[in-house]
Amino acid sequence: MRTSLVLLSARLLDPISGLLPETALAVSDGRIAALGDAREIRALADSSTTVVDLGGAVVTPGLVDGHLHPVTGAELTHGLDLSGCADLDDVRDALALQASCLAPGAWLRGWGLDPNVFGDRPVEAAALAPVLDGIPALLQLFDAHSVLASDRALELAGVDGPRRFDQAAEVVCDDRGRPTGLLLEDAACELVERAAPQPTRAERRDRLAEVLRAMAATGLTGGHVMDANGDSLDLYAELDADDALPLRLRIAPWCQPGTDDDGWRELVAQQGTGGRLWRVAGVKLFMDGTIDNGTAWLEHPDCHGESAHAFWPDPDAYARIIAELHRAGVPTATHAIGDAAVRHALDSVENAVARGGAGARHRIEHIETVPDDTVRRFARAGVIASMQPTHCCDFTRADHTDNWSRRLGEERASRAWRCRDLWESGATVVLGSDWPIADHDPRAVMAGARHRRPSRDLTRPPHNPDQALTAQQALQGVTRNPAFAAGEEDHAGRLAVGHRADLTAFAEDPLRTPDTDLPELPVVLTVLDGRTTHRDASV
């Protein structure tokens, strides 16, 4: 086989074994063909081989985001970025500046709005009315489970009161039945979204390609995609066919409440379809919403009396579908944030395995607050814990004065994102960003898992520092563990002959780089399937 790529003068860092004695590697047919010294590996090259001298850079298996939404994120992050706004005045100033540039009748789109900016005030459009008067505006809250719509946007969409939905969604209204502007969960958000102008398909494709290239530049070689909404699969297929897909994508379509027998059978039939660098593998379900907007499922309601219900009006229907998918050998990923949601998801998987035997590897996504007995069940049930540590860093505070913590109260807020407890209990912990909810940069994800401090101000104290992961655990969480979750541990996630040539090269050792400096550690080379997707000018 022809050697397509040779990397020389490298420090090879395996996430399990640590630094390897070899200093060079060769790639053939998208796989690591050989590890050795410079003389041995250089001898495998011919005139057609790309040879890169890394000058001592540290090579790891390619980094994988365990939970992201590329197509949805590319659409949601096209507009005014409100994620840096610390209070209402900041938000108003940003909106006023954007509004001054709008053409008459144009919509104002924003994203990343943190509910903490409202302080003790309710999250409602009235707080922003002075700068949005007569302007149709849709502002995505950071959790992507809720939207704040201006009065004009509600008017254009014909939303003038409460609505009934087949899932836990809500048009939030005041005591007189008038919408406040806050829309909870997709079914409610879509009421207004449909009334807003939409980008062309070509614009969406170009934006997606741009986003994926930016991800590759941060060292990402893959992602576990937690949706297949709209025409997203077609977009991935087009990029793949044009050799323009810079990430290897594992995609889980949604299964929503109300799915009948034909619906879940169609999801089963989709499994394994795809292209060279993408494939459908798994199904995504929701057991609840989010704590910040009161739609999580808690064993005891939050301080507002909310978060007391499942996303599925009939949780037993969810359990039956988990059993059917397990019987068909389909892995599932369940969004479960609150303690009741996580417990029900674990119950459902355990019952499915008891009836159908071992097989598919199931996951639970987010797991923001759970008691001790729930933590210990993950390893026993073989359920993957998929977590996003930067959500803890950037959307909560160590003193529990943030919206998430105040809603839960001290006891439950003290159980925030128990990454270390889950790891030490024997569970497989996969790390991700949930982009566009948080920055997709895997260096920031690993850093957050280690320091648990707000990225905007690293001098502030960490939230539950005893739940921090070690540097090696954090690296495993974005390499070996995602491969295991995908059932690919025999050919991915390690630096070994025969494994995929999905590689990330750092200027320095990420394990020795201080956690607060890690997000700025240069990525000098990213390789996917033996093909360079990012190369810094220094190499």
TrEMBL record:
Pfam family, one: Amidohydro_3
Domain Amidohydrolase positions: 51-533
CDD domains assigned: YtcJ_like
GO MF assignments: hydrolase activity
Entry keyword set: Hydrolase
InterPro entries (UniProt xref): Amidohydro_3, Metal-dep_hydrolase_composite, Metal_Hydrolase, YtcJ-like
Enzyme class: hydrolase
EC id: 3.5.-.-
UniProt xrefs under PANTHER family: IMIDAZOLONEPROPIONASE (PTHR22642), PROTEIN LONG AFTER FAR-RED 3 (PTHR22642:SF2)
Name of this chain's protein: Amidohydrolase
Species of the source: Saccharopolyspora rosea
